[in-house]
Specification:
The chain is mainly beta. It has a single domain, classed as Elongation Factor Tu (Ef-tu), domain 3. A two-stranded antiparallel sheet has the order 1-4. Strands 2-3 form a two-stranded antiparallel sheet.
């Protein structure tokens, strides 16, 4: 509808914000001290978080690269985690 009315859309995405992905993924993490990320606060455990960016509307138009959990060093949200802000 926007295009039909001569309106273009621009999206400004900052991937380091680690939010707003297209899909949940499961992967293993450790909790770290929020003031010193080099200090580990837990052992490895599995979480589910929104880290998979598939860009369904784009397809492979500009790139076939897909962002997933391997592209990030931390997340702000984990499904079912109490308090979040991991």
């Amino acid at each position: 509808m926007l295009k039909e009315n001569g309106v273009g859309v621009i999206v400004d995405v900052v991937f380091n914000h680690r939010g707003g992905a297209d899909e949940l993924e499961s992967f293993h993490v450790v909790k770290v001290d929020p003031d010193d990320r080099s200090k580990t606060l837990s052992g490895h455990y599995e979480i589910r978080s929104y880290t998979k960016f598939t860009f369904p509307g784009r397809g492979d138009t500009y790139s076939s690269f897909l962002w997933d959990f391997t592209c990030f060093t931390g997340v702000d949200y984990a499904e079912g985690e109490e308090g979040n802000g991991i």
